[in-house]
Amino acid sequence: MEDVGSGRAVSEEKRLAQGDFYEISDVLLEPDEGDWANEPVGIAKMPGEGDAPEGIERLVLSLAGASDQGGRLCNEDSFMTHGEVGVISDGIGGAPYGDLFSRLCCQAFLDDWKEAVAAASRRGSKRDGESLMRSTFGSVDRFVSRASRYLGKGSGATLISAARWGDGLLIGSVGDTAAFCLGRDGRLVRIMADDGRAEGGGNALREAMGYRLIEHDANRVQIALLPLSASQRVLLCSDGVWTQLPENRVAEILSESDDPYTAAFRLVHEAAAACGPSSDNATAIVIHTGTPSRDETTPWFPS
Questions:
Q1: Domains of the chain from N-terminus onward
Q2: pLDDT tier, 81 (very low <50, low <70, confident <90, very high otherwise)
Q3: Contact residues for 49 (Cβ-Cβ < 8 A; gap 6+)
Q4: Are the beta carbons of 232 and 29 closer than 8 angstroms?
Q5: Tell me: the pLDDT tens digits for 115-160?
Q6: How far is C-alpha 40 from the geometric centre of its chain's CA atoms?
Q7: Is 196 left (phi over 0), alpha (psi -120 to 50) or beta?
Q8: Distance (Å) of CA 214 to CA 137, 244, 283
Q9: Angle, nearest 10°, between helix axes 98-123 and 129-151?
Q10: Could you tell me the strand order of the sheet in which 178-182 lies?
Q11: If we measure between CA atoms, which residue out of 276, 196, 273 comes closest to residue 238?
Q12: Is the dihedral of CA 145, 172, 44, 121 positive or negative?
């Protein structure tokens, strides 16, 4: 990434709903039957949202991420996962402290999202997930914009997050860090129809965190709600993955990998190898849905 541009660039893919809120239903599969063993980590249901469909709350999310520096001098991508929440940020290339700003975005989102959801629960609020996600992005933008004043004017980062919300996976995005899922036919489905880049081609961004754009206009955040289903595969990734690996190869890796860490590791390392010495940083979080087991955990490995 090089710049934050202006204008609007929308891919030719069909929008799944009007505006920047997408509700994905064409990839919904029937949930598995089975006994519920553990309450899922994270937020399963907010007050006033009603009961989830039969079988949905038995599903839990397993998240794992990996990152590869590629051919760059440093890795300006960051990712973090906690419970059933995952977030990726990609520092603006060419701006100072890109690696620091991406880490700030990730940590600030996890902290602010946890606080916002807890506050809504205490109040018994019926506030919807979309507005809560937008307000969290706004608070993160306010924080990193203040940091930019002291550390390096012009610094910023992309941000994408995914969090369990009722019977769905709530995804928010600013910039060109993307979200995908596998459709019923095994093909890769891009969840946000808008790629986040400015008109005219290239890798200039229309929005990014750290410029007070989101703080003053939270509608700039793209939001999607993906219904949870059994054996689902969801991918969050920086542009170093989706621009360097063909979609059919991404789909193959997601389909073939038995656990999310293996998929994430293979994706970032293949993406980095695809472009050799000129390759961009590549980062991925892979999310699997399944029934809980007391005997199985997803291992964490340093990337």
A1: 21-47+57-290 (3.60.40.10)
A2: very high
A3: 126, 166
A4: yes
A5: 999 998 888 766 689 999 999 999 999 999 998 888 767 788 999 9
A6: 19
A7: left
A8: 7, 28, 23
A9: 140
A10: 60-68, 282-290, 233-237, 178-182, 188-190
A11: 196
A12: positive
| Residues 6 or more apart whose Cβ sits within 8 Å of residue 109 | 87, 136, 137, 140, 159, 161
Q: In this model, does residue 44 exceed pLDDT 60?
A: no
Mean pLDDT of the residues in the chain: 78
* Separation between Cα atoms, residue 296 and residue 104, nearest integer Å: 31
- pLDDT number for residue 288: 96
How sure is the predictor about 216, in pLDDT bands with cuts at 50, 70 and 90?
A: confident
Query: Which amino acid makes up residue 162?
Result: A
Both structure tokens of 131: 């507005």
Looking at residue 293, what is its pLDDT?
60
Enter the tokens of residue 250: 């991404």
SS (H, E, C) the chain: CCCECCCCCECCCCCCCCCCEEECCCCCCCCCCCCCCCCCCCCCCCCCCCCCCCCHHHCEEEEEEEEECCCCCCCCEEEEEECCEEEEEEECCCCCCHHHHHHHHHHHHHHHHHHHHHHHHHHCCCCCHHHHHHHHHHHHHHHHHHHHHHHCCCCCECEEEEEEECCEEEEEEECCCEEEEECCCCCEEECCCECCECCCCCCCECCCECCCHHHHCHHHCEEEEEECCCCCEEEEECHHHHCCCCHHHHHHHHHHCCCHHHHHHHHHHHHHHHCHHHCCCEEEEEEEEECCCCCCCCCCCCC
- Can you tell me the distance from the alpha carbon of 221 to that of 130, in angstroms, rounded to the nearest whole number? 10
